[in-house]
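Researcher: I'd like a candidate sequence for this fold, 301 residues long. If you have to choose between options at a position, lean toward the conservative one.
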């Protein structure tokens, strides 16, 4: 498994490092800690060219130093894995998107607005989510976490009946998890606010009610099947299933807050009839407002 950890020198980048260090990864994983130093024209407007070049070279040297420090931490934490460090001049969006062809997972902080790479949601992170060739983990600390953060104990998995959800579940089944990991599998069904009607509308409402009952049964079976597969891997009693009705973003965020989730996992483009999760709407809203890291699974394109 190839994991690209994109960093800068901001506190929001540090959470990405903490998330990676706290997780369990395959024994043969290869980490690449990467930082882009952007040659911004305003630097040359306020400095002489020689001064600007010296400043940028110093920034690049600093980036190489702290990426190597992070790589050393990864080597110590995961002695069987390979940890590489790389820093270079260039546009962070373009370089990371190109690197996503190599990576199976890219890890970025959610809101880093300082430092040489400026990784922040709405720019680099969102660009990776929308256009990257692999899965993306948007890292943030849990709300009101205390002590050492734990990001792979209480895991919320948002699922529906699509291939993308199956990919997310396969992703989970193929990754190692710590012994304390507990999973909640969630599916959401959209239900009209008011299905009371009369006349012809009552016929439509009755048909809608029958369809909702069918979807409940289908979603329950789906969750039970996935739960059985996961329990075979991590053990009995560590998987809970939840079927909710309502708006998917609200349901996912409400569940994440209620269970104090350490991680949310969901597919990148979920368009099934159980509930339509799709990038640019539900996935993006969850990433923006989640109280914990969000892992958006996308198979290599």
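Model: Candidate sequence:
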């Amino acid at each position: 498994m190839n994991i690209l950890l994109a960093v800068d020198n901001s506190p929001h980048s540090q959470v990405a490092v903490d998330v990676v260090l706290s997780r369990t990864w395959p024994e043969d994983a290869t980490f690449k800690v990467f930082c882009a130093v952007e040659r911004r024209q305003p630097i040359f407007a306020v400095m002489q060219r020689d001064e600007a070049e010296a400043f940028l070279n110093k920034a690049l040297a600093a980036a190489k130093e702290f990426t190597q420090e992070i790589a050393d931490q990864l080597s110590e934490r995961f002695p069987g894995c390979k940890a590489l460090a790389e820093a270079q001049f260039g546009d962070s969006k373009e370089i990371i998107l190109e690197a996503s062809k190599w990576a199976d997972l890219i890890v970025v902080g959610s809101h880093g607005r300082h430092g040489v790479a400026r990784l922040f949601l709405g720019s680099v992170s969102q660009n990776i989510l929308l256009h990257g060739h692999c899965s993306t983990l948007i890292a943030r600390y849990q709300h009101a976490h205390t002590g050492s953060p734990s990001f792979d104990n209480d895991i919320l998995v948002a699922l529906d009946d699509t291939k993308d959800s199956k990919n997310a579940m396969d992703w989970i089944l193929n990754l190692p998890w710590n012994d304390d990991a507990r999973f909640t599998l969630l599916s959401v069904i959209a239900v009209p606010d008011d299905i009371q009607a009369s006349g012809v509308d009552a016929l439509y409402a009755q048909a809608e009610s029958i369809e909702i009952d069918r979807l409940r049964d289908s979603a329950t079976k789906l969750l039970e099947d996935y739960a059985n597969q996961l329990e075979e891997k991590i053990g009995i009693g560590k998987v809970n299933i939840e079927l909710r009705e309502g708006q998917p973003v609200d349901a996912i965020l409400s569940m994440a807050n209620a269970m104090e989730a350490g991680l949310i996992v969901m597919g990148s483009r979920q368009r099934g009839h159980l509930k339509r999760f799709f990038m640019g709407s539900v996935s993006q809203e969850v990433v923006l407002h989640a109280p914990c890291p969000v892992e958006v699974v996308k198979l290599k394109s």
